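HUMAN: Quick job: go over this next protein and say how the chain folds.
***
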Amino acid sequence: MNSNTVLAGLGAALLAVTLLVCGFAVCCMPATTQALSSAVSTGEDSPYTHEQLVPLAVATRNFTVDYHQSMEEARESLAADVVDAARAAAAEGAPKYFNWNQEAREVLADTDRPAFDTMEALSEVSDRYALDADAVSHLEDCNRLINGVSSYLGMFGVAALIVAIVLGFRKQFAALAFMLRMGPAFLLFVLIVLGLWGVVDFNGLFAAFHSLFFVDGTWTFSYDSLLISMYPINFWMGMGAVWVGSAIGGGLLLFAVGCFFAWKAGVQQRGLAEAAAEAARSKKGKKGRR
């Protein structure tokens, strides 16, 4: 096994991880949250309307995914969005006015305290009205995880690019073709296995995924809480489809590039074979003249 073969195998593994990371990056885009929440955050069992839940879902995504210099300021900003939506939803004449009880209205009537304190007090009335302490804590855990590993995950892509450049510089087109085709193929195999698991038991897959990164009990919430109203199970199923679709789409593109290099390797191989045959004929001709 030569160094080019080792590099091709390493590059294929790095490429598979890179495609997975790219799919996750698409999931983290604000537009993805906007589109999915618009489709599934219906507000049927929520004191908020669909039109209110969608921007709240995007604001919560911003709190969860984006980097914040001050988490305290980020919490206050998210709470302000929630409290503003709550006051609009609980206002007399609003479509969901009768979904709000008197205790919640009394909390919202106090306009002197900070938004986060208001949200916390509102969540103590019911987590249907606001994000409670457990929900905020989980979102902060997600933010630390995403921002903590994002730079390291990008290194997989850089490493894959370096391997591809080295193989290209060496004109090892067959090895480069292997890398570009086997990386997506390996990823597809993994995704098929996970996809079958998701079809059979999506909740089990969802729980297993969360248990890898979070302590049990810190990521489960009541079915009618504000967090679940913004992000119901269909939202996460859609997010999974976006993740898989994006990764496979990128993989197909790289596979096509790999086919091009496989053709180029064939041309190279035929050229070497013809050159070797020509050299052999020339050598034989010289022997004959002697």
Summary: DSSP finds eleven helices and no strands in the chain. The chain has one domain: 3-289. The mean pLDDT is 90.
